[in-house]
Amino acid sequence: MVVRTAKQVLHLDDVCIATDSQEVIDVCASYDIKAMLTSTTHKSGTDRINECATLLKLKDDELVINLQADEPFIEPEVVDEMIVRLKELKKAKNDFVMASCYNAINNETAQDPNLVKVILDSHQNAIYFSRSLIPYDRSGNANYFGHLGIYGFDKKSLHNFCTLDDAPIEDIEKLEQLRAIYHGKKISMVKVASTSFGIDTKEDLQRAKDIFLS
Fold first, then answer.
1. What is the pTM of this model?
2. How is domain 59-213 classified at the CATH fold level?
């Protein structure tokens, strides 16, 4: 799954797998995919990516895309759209540069707590992320948006994010992006068309295997 996710985006730019597993390092080496061994104590994937970016000696203004390895069906076009938004944020000279992606989902799909939902402000910034159904549809006219497991930063903002104190809502929901919102940082959201899904459950894994073998 890690290799498949990396191969989806290898043609876009440099790709490096950040992992605390020697087994993953060895598997990546067998496919000629760059991988870097990181600490076993990181609380979140973003903290791990920050260590990797530091070890790679990336400059503060370089863009870093955190694509989680359980997204083997991520479309390269989605990553491209993320890069475009990040460049726009940098051109606007934002002090904190962070972006993520979402797509429209139906009411039935939105009921799944493994699928994170997001609500937005008028500037396409995230107001809140939750595993719960948000917003509560009292009017009967709610639209639901699903969050895709991909984040983008510039290196300086990535480091900034990782120096923030953990947020209570981050621990409650087990969603690391809530750390930024808790501390008043903006997460710019990019609407994309995607059929990708993360591998969060045994059912997701079987669905992925069925697609791989079809």
1. 0.88
2. Spore Coat Polysaccharide Biosynthesis Protein SpsA; Chain A (3.90.550)
